[in-house]
Amino acid sequence: MEHHHEEHSNVEHLYRMVVEYDRKGDVYNAVKLCKRLAKLAPDWSAPFAFLGRMYRSRQEWKPTFHYCLRAVEHNPFDENLWETLGLAATAIGEWETARYAWNQLGFHFKKTDEELHLDLGIVPVRLNPFTQPEIVAVRRIDPVRAIIESIPQPSSGRRYKDLVLIESKPNARLVQQNKKLPIHDELQLLKQSPWQTFATLLHTDSQRDVDTLANLCLETNLGFDNWSNASRFFQPNLHEKVSEYFDHSIFGKLERDNFLVAIASRNSKAVTDVLKKWEVITLKKWDEPECLF
């Protein structure tokens, strides 16, 4: 009994050392000691959960998956563990485990190994949250994967229809027209889309003309975004597919004689065609579209 107690306090002491290494930013020793601890106390969830968190922060999804799976065996009541397991399982395509993990958090997915592909609606996502944050509209297809529906600036390295991995829970909130909109952070690009990004100047001072082009793009299955507004927030009154972000309070009052817009297409001919159609309807001019990305 005495020996067991000693072993237990030794294990706890080691875990405190792991936490201390981590606090000092010594990841190497924290992970090394924690792996030793996991062997010493294979029935204790804490070391496995710690390793799962460490690998998650480095976006190394296979070890994240492995350690979270071990952690939930010994502690099935920690929602954060199930969330991280669902995320890692999704990132590496372990769909049966992903479905099982999400079901522990209130979803009701069938027990199969098929990829999830739902429509969980449009939400704002912050691309590159730590380097060059840009808020875009995405359509969630499962708790942590989404398809970009805005046209991101080329500097973001993202395109219209890219598939991205996102946090399952929002990290921040935007206030727009007295409504709080939860924003999810992007974790990484999963699959780049074949769509290209074109930009053009519309020689018009009318927002209505811009909306006309937005609707023409929608009819011809092209992506559309109004880039004239640098700060892009949720603007609910543009047609449902282009939940564009911009702040009317700042930009709505500006007098302007042209608009910079982006069109996403698989080829330049479709872009020119839609602009010619727009010109016939509005009798306004446009600049030669430039392929940016």
Protein model, in words:
This protein is an alpha+beta fold. It folds into 3 domains: 2-103, Tetratricopeptide repeat domain (Serine Threonine Protein Phosphatase 5, Tetratricopeptide repeat); 122-191, no CATH class; 196-291, Alpha-Beta Plaits, CATH 3.30.70. The protein contains 9 helices and 13 strands. It has helices spanning 2-23, 27-40, 45-57, 61-74, 79-91, 95-103, 207-219, 248-251, 268-282; strands spanning 122-127, 134-142, 145-148, 163-166, 172-176, 179-191, 196-203, 223-226, 234-235, 244-245, 259-265, 285-286, 290-291. The strands form 3 sheets. It has a 5-stranded mixed β-barrel with strand order 1-2-3-4-6. Strands 7, 8, 11, 12 and 13 form a 5-stranded antiparallel β-sheet that branches. It has a two-stranded antiparallel sheet with strand order 9-10. The protein starts with a helix and ends with a strand.
Write the layout of secondary structure elements.
Elements: H1 2-23, H2 27-40, H3 45-57, H4 61-74, H5 79-91, H6 95-103, E1 122-127, E2 134-142, E3 145-148, E4 163-166, E5 172-176, E6 179-191, E7 196-203, H7 207-219, E8 223-226, E9 234-235, E10 244-245, H8 248-251, E11 259-265, H9 268-282, E12 285-286, E13 290-291
Parallel strand pairs: 1-6
Antiparallel strand pairs: 1-2, 2-3, 3-4, 4-6, 5-6, 7-11, 7-12, 7-13, 8-11, 9-10
